[in-house]
Amino acid sequence: MPTTLTAFADVTTSDSALRRFLHGLPGVDAVGLEARAASLGTRSIKTTAKAYAIDLAISMIDLTTLEGADTPGKVRALSAKAVNPDPTDRSTPMTAAVCVYPDMVATAKAALNGADVKVASVATAFPAGRAALPVKLADTRDAVAAGADEIDMVIDRGAFLAGRYLETYELIKAVKEACVRPDGTAARLKVIFETGELSTYDNIRRASWIGMLAGADFIKTSTGKVGVNATPANTLLMLEAVRDFKAQTGIQIGVKPAGGIRTTKDALKFLVLVNETVGEDWLTNEWFRFGASSLLNDLLMQRQKLSTGRYSGPDYVTVD
Fold first, then answer.
1. In this structure, are residues 239 and 198 in contact, taking their beta carbons and an 8 Å threshold?
2. What dihedral do alpha carbons 61, 131, 167, 220 form, nearest 10°?
3. Considering the entire predicted model, what is its pTM?
4. Is 214:169 a contact under the CB 8 Å cutoff?
5. Is 50 a residue of the active site?
6. Is the pLDDT reported for residue 315 higher than 70?
7. Average pLDDT across the chain, whole number
8. Active-site option among 109, 176, 256, 269
9. Which of 27, 174, 198, 285 could form a disulfide with 60 if both were Cys (CB 3.0 to 4.6 A apart)?
10. Contact 208, 170 (CB under 8 A)
11. Average pLDDT over residues 289-299
């Protein structure tokens, strides 16, 4: 099996070459995609398997606050919750990461105090991405310099929808390079497509391939700031893309659905999608994440119910 992008070296040499490649990808059968996503969503997970899945889902959460009213106190509280989600049960897993704006990275890093929770930062003029390239790169470098372990960037949807595919590719490559620290280590890069604005499944498939070819460590559905965010169908399509990419290159890419995933039932449906589409290699927070703020509370309530037999209700978990 090949383990490099050598086979795709000619694809990104020009805008026309990249266009030919992307428009040569198989068209998406929308009916079939949605039917399969719906069918997998009916799978039932019970008892021991459910308890395992709930803990797995908790460990995959990027616990997120991305509001204009964010304060250092709120970020510190969120970081404490990420490390110790349920103070009444120390066996509860930590979340994968805390996700904040770049100016809050240092606050989150200090609050986590060496805990095994990553600090993720949105960048590149999140959520709209409407800024000049030097601004986007400065945004990224500032977050990395402040201690971000991961960068969640947004693509320029306007450029992509206008067919400027090579421009989109080169933006991702430039941000990837900006993630490298002076010592040679690098923050992992998640590339957000804002699937709700891409209009078609074919566009989501094309954006996925652009992101993977440009060096994304994760491809991510959404910012959570538009009307349509992560859905089982668009996540399934992205899972199929990373599966096919690994089959052709040997390179594994993560997937992060974000926005609109609020309940344990929702999260378990997505875990079934992962298991049935790409398998156990992706059933770890190294390769699959949930971008969420309220999901954790429902997972904690369901976890408490499984362990005690009683449903404690929302007043027994912290809001932030």
1. no
2. 10
3. 0.95
4. yes
5. no
6. no
7. 94
8. 256
9. 285
10. no
11. 95
Which residue stretches of the chain are H helix?
A: 15-23, 30-40, 47-59, 72-83, 105-112, 133-145, 157-161, 165-178, 201-214, 232-249, 264-277, 295-308
Beginning with the edge strand found earlier in the chain, give each strand of the sheet holding 188-192 in spatial order.
254-256, 218-220, 188-192, 150-154, 118-123, 97-100, 61-64, 290-292
SS (H, E, C) 104-133: HHHHHHHHHCCCCCEEEEEECCCCCCCCCH
| Among 62, 86, 139, 152, the one annotated catalytic | 152
Q: Which of these, 77, 57, 56, 75, lies nearest to 66 by C-alpha position?
A: 75
Closest CA to 273 of 18, 14, 40, 7: 40
Q: Any bridge partners for residue 123, and if so which?
A: 153
Per residue in 198-221, pLDDT (tens digit) is: 999 999 999 999 999 999 999 999
Choose the catalytic residue: 190, 220, 246, 269.
220
User: What is the C-alpha to C-alpha distance for residues 238 and 231, in angstroms, rounded to an integer?
Assistant: 11
Q: Is the preceding peptide bond at 257 cis, omega within 30 degrees of 0?
A: no
For residues 43 and 102, the model is more confident at: 102
The two structure tokens encoding residue 261: 């995933």
Instruction: Give the bridge partners for 190, in sequence order.
Output: 152, 218
| Residue 152 bears catalytic tag | yes
Does 3 score more than 70 pLDDT? no
The letter for the amino acid at 4 is T
